[in-house]
Specification:
About 45% of the residues lie in helices and about 20% in strands. By secondary structure, the protein is of the alpha/beta class. It has a single domain (about 15-195), classed as Rossmann fold (3-Layer(aba) Sandwich), CATH 3.40.50.720.
């Protein structure tokens, strides 16, 4: 039986996916699912995750389908780690055309009166600053190719609010505005920006 036609072609493109080892209880995580789909469409995929073993599990799934990928350990909250991951991707595959920023945490419940401020700072850096850091190093590589696409994962909670966790709702709303601002900055360079929305959840 012939394989169904590809919905879109990414042969020759190189993609970076943060949180590529993500998995939920009994389910596949957004990062892992995204990486697999990109590989199925022909992209070479750099699988970034702070948990290298989880990224390697994603690579096994891609290998089984004949795709091309490489697992790279990366802490997306650390600037040096982000820089090294992008450099490693270019070393392996020669370019960067696509960046998908998936990493995100729920950050617990709590209102402005009783939330843990250290947890707040950590969550904002994970959910928002990480996207700036990864973009900081991916954009110069996209400029070399005179094109690029960046997808920032947000949530419906970032649009409608109402989530029990102040951090999650606030950070996901910030992602929407971050994406709009970056689109205005880099659209003229043929670098496209997209916010991807998933239903409200305790994890991304």
């Amino acid at each position: 039986m012939a394989s169904p036609p590809l919905a879109f072609q990414l042969h020759g493109d190189v993609a970076i996916v943060s949180g590529a080892g993500s998995q939920l209880s009994g389910e596949i995580g957004n990062g892992r699912a995204t990486a697999i789909v990109l590989a199925r469409q022909g992209a070479k995929v750099a699988l970034l995750d702070n948990n290298l073993e989880a990224a390697k599990e994603t690579k096994k799934l891609i290998d089984a389908e004949g795709g091309i990928s490489e697992a790279i350990q990366c802490d997306v909250t650390d600037e040096a780690s982000c820089k090294a991951a992008v450099e490693k991707t270019v070393e392996l595959f020669g370019a960067v055309h696509i960046l998908v920023n998936v990493v995100g945490i729920f950050g617990g419940r709590g209102n402005a009166v009783d939330l843990d401020l250290e947890e707040w700072d950590r969550g904002m850096r994970t959910n928002v600053t990480s996207m700036v850091l990864m973009s900081r190093f991916a954009i110069p590589e996209m400029r070399k190719q005179k094109r690029g696409a960046i997808v920032n994962f947000s949530s419906v909670s970032g649009l409608i609010g109402g989530n029990p966790g102040l951090l999650y709702t606030t950070s996901k709303g910030a992602v929407v505005q971050l994406t709009r601002a970056m689109a205005a900055h880099h659209g003229p360079e043929q670098i496209r920006w997209i916010s991807s929305f998933h239903p409200p959840s305790n994890k991304t």
